[in-house]
From TrEMBL:
NCBIfam families: HTH_metalloreg (NF033788). The keyword DNA-binding applies. The keyword Cell cycle does not apply. CDD domains: HTH_ARSR. This is DNA-binding transcriptional ArsR family regulator. One of its GO terms (molecular function) is DNA-binding transcription factor activity. SMART domains: HTH_ARSR. Residues 1-93 form the HTH arsR-type domain. PROSITE patterns: HTH_ARSR_2.
Length: 115
């Protein structure tokens, strides 16, 4: 599969690990770019570049607060990811059902062996 040349959708935007780290940090609340950059050990311009991509796909919002610009998580942008991963729910439920049946069989065999 060819890799998309753009970061214009949420899947491409969150494919970059440092962007995912930014989203995790923003779960705790709005923060200025300087704090994000410091916590992630990256330069401010690099953090700003990641924030711009996240803002363009609707995962991050920003607002002015005094002399600072604060960035915050907009989790509504994760809806396409949530809907896509939800398609695998049936697979995981069936896998857990098979695992549960296996464990029950083991317990039954152990009880029959001890009697």
């Amino acid at each position: 599969m060819a890799r998309a040349a753009t970061t214009s959708d949420v899947f491409n935007a969150i494919a970059e690990p440092q962007r995912r780290q930014i989203l995790v940090l923003l779960r705790a609340g709005d923060r200025p770019v300087t704090e994000l950059a410091q916590e992630l050990g990256m330069t401010q311009p690099r953090a700003s570049k990641h924030l711009r991509v996240l803002r363009e796909v609707g995962l991050v919002r920003d607002r002015k607060a005094g002399k600072q610009r604060l960035y915050g998580l907009d989790a509504r942008g994760l809806r396409p990811v949530h809907e896509w991963t939800g398609g695998f729910e049936r697979f995981w439920n069936e896998t857990f059902d098979r695992l549960d049946a296996y464990v029950q069989d083991l317990k039954q065999a152990r009880q029959e062996g001890s009697n």
